[in-house]
Specification:
It is a single chain. The protein is built from 6 helices and no strands. The chain is an all-alpha fold. α1 runs parallel beside α3, α2 runs antiparallel to α3 and α3 packs antiparallel against α4. It starts with a helix and ends in a 6-residue tail after the last helix. 31% of the residues are buried.
Length: 124
């Protein structure tokens, strides 16, 4: 399991549990972890921005949360380097074992868009 990805998941869970200080501390630790090709740095950036949005939302800063969510959505809309077979190969080379799962940009974008839509007070 990728340590940066695990820390990002923990930071997101803390933010969604309304613990923004703990989430921010965990997010800072993500940036200190060594990152290799199997960690998919291009994916980490998009996910990190999404988690920043969740932290802002937990702090009640809806404007910052919306801005970060739009930034994350833009990253997911861009064609990603190294997806699919290249990701699998990076894991085999970097970790010596097959990947647990591949990244699905469309699914990640949908998650971000759902969080952004939830900020819209007119949406039911």
């Amino acid at each position: 399991v990728s340590r940066p990805v695990a820390r990002l998941a923990r930071a997101e869970a803390l933010a969604r549990a309304q613990q923004p200080d703990a989430a921010e501390a965990e997010l800072r630790q993500v940036t200190l972890e060594p990152v290799g090709p199997a960690d998919r740095p291009h994916v980490l950036v998009a996910r990190l921005t999404h988690v920043q949005a969740m932290i802002a939302l937990a702090r009640g800063d809806r404007a910052l949360a919306a801005r970060r969510l739009r930034e994350a959505a833009e990253v997911w809309r861009r064609p990603l380097r190294a997806t699919g077979a290249a990701d699998l190969l990076a894991n085999l080379v970097d970790l010596g074992r097959p990947t647990v799962g591949t990244v699905e940009p469309a699914r990640e974008l949908a998650r971000v868009q759902d969080d952004l839509a939830a900020l819209d007070p007119l949406r039911t």
